[in-house]
Design a protein that fits this description.
By secondary structure, the protein is α/β, with parallel strands linked by helices. Helices cover 23% and strands 11% of the residues. The chain has 5 helices and 6 strands, in the order βαβαββαβαβα. It has a 6-stranded parallel sheet, with no helix packed on it.
Length: 171
């Protein structure tokens, strides 16, 4: 799929929507706005979307989505000059976030703080070599967090860099 008709979801109720692994370069904000009362889970990963498209069509308060699960895997956020960690500010009820393969080299503190109800975080297959102590402390405040996927990152296993992460995982 290379395009989505803005009227595709008018007068329908969709709870789960998987549009991953397509060739969508962008989305009309009107296309998903009609689902704001019903959509709970959205998979949009593996599309050539940019941060500006994610913001205007999915994450903007104007669209009004109230998702509990969001998969934006393999969208290269970390290499997009428009990526800001507060992108998820309006998704405070998000419980599952898949950021695998997003070219992230850091785990931004703002991202963690904007998702207080997060239960599952997938940050595998990124460019993380360590996670800052302050980000680990922020993760510790997420009382609902039950799973975090860290595999396939180029971890720098020097004791001073990986030590805090190992201690956090043991806690």
């Amino acid at each position: 799929m290379v395009a989505l008709d803005p009227a595709a979801f008018i007068n329908v109720s969709v709870k789960d929507l998987d549009m991953s692994s397509n060739r969508l370069p962008g989305l009309d904000p009107a296309a998903l706005a009609t689902l704001n009362a019903s959509l709970v889970r959205l998979k949009i990963g593996e599309n050539p979307l940019q941060v500006s498209h994610l913001w205007s069509s999915i994450m903007s308060p104007r669209v009004g989505l109230n998702l509990s699960e969001l998969d934006i895997s393999d969208i290269k956020l970390g290499s997009d000059q428009h990526f800001q960690a507060d992108l998820f500010t309006f998704f405070r009820d998000l419980q599952t976030l898949n950021l695998s393969g997003c070219a992230l080299s850091t785990l931004p503190l703002e991202l963690i703080h904007s998702l207080p109800n997060l239960r599952e975080l997938d940050i595998s297959r990124n460019a993380l070599s360590s996670i800052a102590d302050i980000s680990l402390s922020a993760l510790s405040t997420l009382n609902s967090l039950r799973r975090i996927y860290l595999h396939s990152n180029p971890w720098h296993c020097d004791a001073c860099l990986i030590g805090p992460l190992l201690r956090w995982l043991d806690a």
